[in-house]
Structures are given as structure tokens and as C-alpha cells.
Design brief:
There is one protein chain. With 349 residues, the protein is an alpha/beta fold. It is built from 11 helices and 12 strands. The protein has a 6-stranded mixed sheet, with helices on both faces. Strands 9-8-7-10-11-12 form a 6-stranded parallel sheet, sandwiched between helices. Strand 7, helix 5 and strand 8 form a beta-alpha-beta unit. Nicotinamide-adenine-dinucleotide binds next to helix 4 and helix 5.
């Protein structure tokens, strides 16, 4: 196993691991441990190149720093990506990944993410104790992430419509995976009409059946007539190309890094579309796994109660945006910076 330190500006530690025996090619990025150990999921994706994987892991790790800060958790931000074919994952791959995680000595704590499941985490856990979201503890974070999105959506609905009533609201759901499917059901159960799209058509179809909704192709979902666009696939779906076509008044979903670049937040504001910042809205899973680390031990009710903070945080962020004439993504960054800067000042005092 060959682990190489890559010096990346603005990040505490970024390392690459190549393990020929298991076929592992992975990167772990620790963005910040100012508020605590860097916790962030392990993503397995068929990246075209290491450059693409690096772009992803760096943005995701930084997003985790802000996610933890906004959620009020004693955690920093980090992330890991495995470059590989999700259809060919093996226990050996995850055991090697466990050793890579262990090499960070606890400054990075991992959990599941896209294409990694609770059973994969069990393999990771056989080589490192710095792993959360395990079976028998807080378990799969996806239902909690979905719940957190739904809690956040209430705040966005109130901001735009003056009420959180979902009756008759049309939701364009992009990505009918672990989080998207549950989020869709939560909305459908409260009267929303779901239009689902997924590159795996059968997943979109299953959600549509469960929710009494319809499906469209992934090419259509970003411009379909709707009230809410819910990005629950991968990042970057809100960008210069897609923003002009978005029909909804709200963007609120689980995907990390929904905006391709910072300007996209301004473009949404100019179009009068309320963006519920991704790292605030999708913190439910993080809040849940964080509760595995507290000395009292995991308590689901305590974790669920903490998720209400997503609603109050968004209210505060929307108010900052309104009062200071900012787009909500910038307002969220300022909100997240408050705790990080206070901790840095305390360290330097
Ligand atoms: P998942 O892999 O279970 O689901 C993602 C779905 O999106 C899959 O069904 C996939 O086929 C689909 N998809 C991929 N590209 C697509 C495209 N271009 N168009 C339409 N569909 C596409 O992943 P998940 O756990 O549900 O996570 C979804 C998103 O939420 C990810 O961005 C993830 O990082 C983020 N997130 C997840 C959690 C969690 O607890 N699982 C927590 C925070 C953030």
C-alpha cells in the first residue's frame, strides 16, 4: 500500500492511496479539524480521471466543514473517494480503505456515501475504529438525511409561500436513490406530486409507483414544470446551463455541491429561486452519525430532535440573505464561518 501526501492549499491534509493487491485507488481529504475530527462519507465512483476525483473530494471535504459548523457539531470536514467501478466493489477494497482511513490516526472519520453501504462499512471497520454509521448503531444515515431535507423544506416553503403546506405542490426529484426515494415519500405523504428521474430508470419508476407520481428522463428533470426542484443525485446540477430552465421556486435536495460554482447562487437569486443551501439541508445524516460519537451513546430521539436545527438554521440563513442582500449560499457560508472563526480565535488567544 502506497500512501502519498499531496500538499493542497487550504486543506490540512490530502493523501492518495494506491494498493495493487486490492485494486484500491483512493483519496482522502481533510479540510479542517478546527471544530473537531473531520467526518465525511466514503464515495465510490467511476471517475474519468484522478483530476475529476480530486475536484470532487476537495469540494466535498470543504462542504463537510461547513455542514458540521452550521449544524453546531464538534466536528471538522473531510471526505474520501474511491476511484472504481461500483459494480465491481469487493470486501478487500473496503478493508484496504479501512487501513487508509486508519493511517489518519482519527483526524478523519468515515461513513457511507454514494455507492457505499452499511455492509461495506463493516469491512472498513475491520481495519479502523474511525468509522460511523455501522449496523447496530446509528445505521444507514440516508433515512435521516431524507428527514433533514424534509425539515429544511418546511423552512423554504414558509419563506416562499408563507406556509409549509405541500398539498398539490409539484416536486421534480433528480435521483431516486437511498435519500431521494425516502424524501419523495415524505413529501408525497403530505400531498406533493412527485416527478422522478434517475439514470437507473427502474429506480425512478419504483419511486413513482410508491408515491403515485410520474417519471421523466434525466435530461428533462431540470426543466420540467414544478414548484420544487429536489437534486438528490450528484453535485453540480445547478449551473449556468440549467438555471435558466429551472421552473420551480425552490431548490431543496440532498445532493452535495449542488451549485457548480459560487456564481450560481447569485444567478438563482436573480431568477427569484430560493436555494436551500445543500450543506445545511442535508445535514440530517451527519447529525445522526455524530450521535454515535457522543459519550452518552447513540439515541435516535436525541438525534431526531437535533435535526430540527436544520429548520431554525435555514430560517436564520434566509434572514441573513434578506437583510444583507446576499444569495442564500453566501449567507450560509457566513453563518458557517461564525463558529469556525470563533474557534480559531479561541485557539489563538
Ligand atoms: P444513491 O447512490 O443511493 O442515489 C443517487 C441516485 O442518483 C442513484 O439512484 C443514481 O442512479 C442517481 N443518479 C446519478 N446521476 C444521476 C443523474 N445525472 N440524473 C438522475 N439520477 C442520477 O445516493 P444517496 O445516498 O441517495 O445520496 C444522494 C446525494 O445526497 C449524493 O449527492 C450524496 O452525496 C448526498 N448525501 C447523501 C447523504 C446520505 O445520508 N446518504 C447525506 C448527505 C448528502
Amino acid at each position: 500500500m502506497e500512501i502519498t501526501d499531496l500538499n493542497i492549499d487550504g486543506y490540512e491534509s490530502v493523501k492518495r492511496c494506491i494498493d495493487t493487491q486490492s485494486g484500491l485507488h483512493a483519496i482522502i481529504a481533510v479540510h479542517s479539524t478546527v471544530l473537531g475530527p473531520a467526518l465525511g462519507g466514503m464515495r465510490l465512483w467511476h471517475y474519468e480521471s484522478e483530476k475529476e476525483a480530486m475536484f470532487d473530494v476537495l469540494r466535498l471535504a470543504q462542504g463537510m466543514t461547513y455542514k458540521a459548523s452550521c449544524a453546531g457539531l464538534a466536528l471538522g470536514g473531510g471526505k474520501s473517494v474511491i476511484l472504481g467501478n461500483p459494480a465491481k466493489k469487493t470486501p478487500e477494497l473496503f478493508r484496504a480503505m479501512g487501513s487508509f482511513v486508519e493511517s489518519f490516526g482519527g483526524s478523519y472519520i468515515t461513513a457511507e456515501d454514494v455507492n457505499t453501504k452499511v455492509e461495506d462499512m463493516a469491512e472498513v471497520n475491520s481495519r479502523t475504529k474511525h468509522c460511523v454509521g455501522l449496523a447496530g448503531k446509528s445505521g444507514n444515515p440516508s433515512p435521516k438525511t431524507a428527514w433533514g431535507c424534509f425539515v429544511g423544506l418546511r423552512a423554504a416553503l414558509e419563506e416562499v409561500y408563507g406556509s409549509d403546506d405541500l398539498t398539490g405542490k409539484v416536486v421534480a426529484l433528480e435521483g431516486a436513490g437511498s435519500v431521494g426515494a425516502i424524501y419523495a415519500k415524505l413529501m408525497a405523504d403530505r400531498g406533493a406530486k412527485i416527478i422522478a428521474a434517475d439514470i437507473r430508470e427502474e429506480s425512478a419508476r419504483a419511486v413513482a409507483e410508491e408515491c403515485g407520481g410520474t417519471i421523466v428522463s434525466p435530461n428533462e428533470i431540470r426543466s420540467v414544470d414544478c414548484d420544487i426542484y429536489a437534486p438528490c443525485a450528484l453535485g453540480g446540477s445547478v449551473n449556468k446551463e440549467t438555471i435558466p430552465g429551472l421552473k420551480g421556486k425552490i431548490v431543496c435536495g440532498a445532493a452535495n455541491n449542488q451549485l457548480l460554482d459560487a456564481d450560481d447562487g447569485h444567478a438563482l437569486r436573480e431568477r427569484g429561486i430560493l436555494y436551500a443551501p445543500d450543506y445545511v439541508v442535508n445535514a440530517g445524516g451527519l447529525i445522526n452519525v455524530y450521535n454515535e460519537l457522543v459519550t452518552e451513546g447513540y439515541n435516535e430521539q436525541v438525534a431526531m430532535d437535533m435535526m430540527e436545527k436544520i429548520y431554525t438554521n435555514l430560517k436564520e440563513i434566509f434572514a441573513i440573505a434578506r437583510d444583507q442582500g446576499l444569495c442564500t449560499s453566501d449567507a450560509a457560508d457566513r453563518f458557517g464561518d461564525l463558529r469556525i472563526n470563533a474557534a480559531l480565535e479561541a485557539m489563538q488567544a
